[in-house]
Design goal:
The protein is of the alpha+beta class. The protein is 26% helix and 43% strand.
Length: 147
């Protein structure tokens, strides 16, 4: 098991960062356009997106919500087996006029294509998140087309 860590610094407010990583509207703007995000500890979250014509579903449980400081989820089910049981923790740290958002993906199963895909995916999505909170717009994954 390994922890992946990514971060960026931004002039965006701690409240903007917290909303982006703790609300359905936030996640729809930078991660997955089709999602359900629980707003309380213990609530479920589901991310759904279209990856090359295949529906990808990721399920989580909200474990911690500390206003403007930290959000932590546990992955309860995922099409990528490397994720099951892993945690996502978004830390928001304020220093002077800027904030640092740090994502720790903890307990990720090592090796192989699922692991490499996760590393590449987080680089993409953290760029999307930063663009969203800085007003340049995010680049979330689309949902499946309606049938």
């Amino acid at each position: 098991m390994e922890d992946l860590e990514y971060s960026f610094r931004t002039p965006a407010s701690a409240a903007s960062l917290f909303d982006a990583v703790s609300t359905e509207a936030g996640h729809r703007a930078w991660w997955a356009m089709d999602c359900d995000v629980g707003a309380t500890v213990g609530a479920p979250c589901v991310m759904r997106f279209n990856k090359d014509g295949t529906l990808v579903t990721m399920k989580f449980r909200v474990d911690e919500l500390v206003n403007n400081e930290r959000v932590r989820w546990t992955c309860t089910d995922n099409d990528n087996p490397a994720w099951k049981g892993s945690t996502l923790t978004w830390h928001i740290e304020s220093t002077g006029d800027e904030r640092r958002l740090r994502l720790v993906h903890g307990g990720l199963a090592l090796g192989g294509p699922p692991y490499e895909m996760t590393k590449a995916g987080w680089r993409r999505f953290l760029d999307s998140l930063q663009g969203y909170v800085e007003g340049r717009g995010g680049d979330p994954m689309p949902g499946m087309p309606a049938t």
